[in-house]
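Sequence and structure are kept together here, with a separate record for every protein. An example record follows, reproduced without changes.
>
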Amino acid sequence: MENGPSSTEDDWIIDDDGMPPAAVTPDTLPWRILIVDDEADIHAVTRLVLGGVTFKGRSVELLSAYSGAEGFQVLAKEPDIALVLLDVVMESDDAGLKLAQRIRGELNNSLVRIVLRTGQPGQAPEERVIVDFDINDYKSKTELTKQKLFTTVIASLRAYEGLVTIERNRVGLSKILRGASNLYQLRSLQEFASGVLNQVNAILDMGSHGELCVLQNDRVDEPDGPAVLAGTGPYAVLAEQKVLPPDHAWSAMISQVLRDKQSMFKATVDALYISASQGREFVIVLTPPWPLGELQRNLLGVFCERIAAAFDNLQMYDQVQKAQEATVSALADLVESRDIETGGHIHRVAKLTDAIALRLHAGGKYPDEFVPHFLTHVGLASMLHDVGKVATPDAVLLKPGLLTAQERVIMDLHVATGELVLRRAAQRVDGVSYLTFGAQIAGGHHEHFDGNGYPNRLKGTEIPLSARIVAVVDVFDALLHRRPYKAPWALPAVIAYLKDRSGKQFDPEVVDALLDFLETEQPDWLIGDGH
């Protein structure tokens, strides 16, 4: 198989002054044309006519195949061929037509242009073949003069270029939509920045050349430089340092981009400007392996707009999340304000609930019960476990001694009260929320694993996992700290109690997760009043 100009024909690329050659990009590579014909003379004449052809500054590279089967093999290995000059009659009377069908059907190549040529005019294909196989032209070899062949080739290359541009736009926009959708799922600024880098890399198809860095201008005016949110490749170290040094090669470029509020494209480095709401600005710096073309720049411009919208969404989500946490904290403080001696209990329960839930999940325990959003919401929801106590009379709630049977009934009502209030609130929110888990916890954290708890005498996994976790955490923290009716216990005594009640009052897996957490983490914030 012959492959384009020889090395001596490429010498014109080198500048006489010793300057480096111009960067080779996909848009400067030669147009690739495949000649499929069983006559060697046709190959020779075609090469003679097209050897010096250029179109939009790009030369032509000619490949050869001498049968339909050989042409199929070349096309299967070389997907970037722009045009096939295809003989109709070769190893069979319709070998060329069969190859055209295989190009569109088996290879699913809708971009390459096909020009049918034949030395036997009587073998003209049916109109259906021209339409169904997307044939650009059909010519008799005798009528393909130099000028007509040139005209046919240029028209075909122009059509191929248009189709490739449309396809690149389609693929690029598809990646943008998919990438922006992924960004909407991220819940932290660092995750967001890393997601942006991944999506820009995918849009540009830069592969291992996609070393990128995202910077935020919160600290541009500070002497130590702007903050680095994320980086890939050799720039990952900048993300670890969290700041771009003032003397870095990109510092001046970034400052100019932020000052001019527009992207900048240079030969070896590009900087994309992104402006979000509330005055937040970002710069994405990338070093692609070749200068970006107009299409790629336009796609990046569209993606930057989507990034800004996704970041605004992240900011709104963050505000909503903070508002939820503040509301729950206010309710929790309201409950604790009824009893100053339980101060801090609810917030410790939340932290420990999160820790145990993560342990269980990491250990593969109860995989079916870790429904979506469980890990996100369960700690926050646990703060509402005793919200029903706002309806409990002070005489019962603050009694320093043991409760009478009647007082115990009144105290136990806080479970049903809390569950009812939170369930009604949850029904006003679409989907699963922290209120959903809050209702489960309020109503189930006094159930016992062996079925002897209250209010519904649920047993084992009939009790929601969220409630089984809080059942352990609530008792653990209550025993460690002073209450109106008891002195604080020492930690060994609390652990002994949990072990004794494991499998009876408490879920054994939850107890084990708590004990493992205490042993490996030894958290200071759990130290009780007796230590």
In short: The radius of gyration is 36 Å.
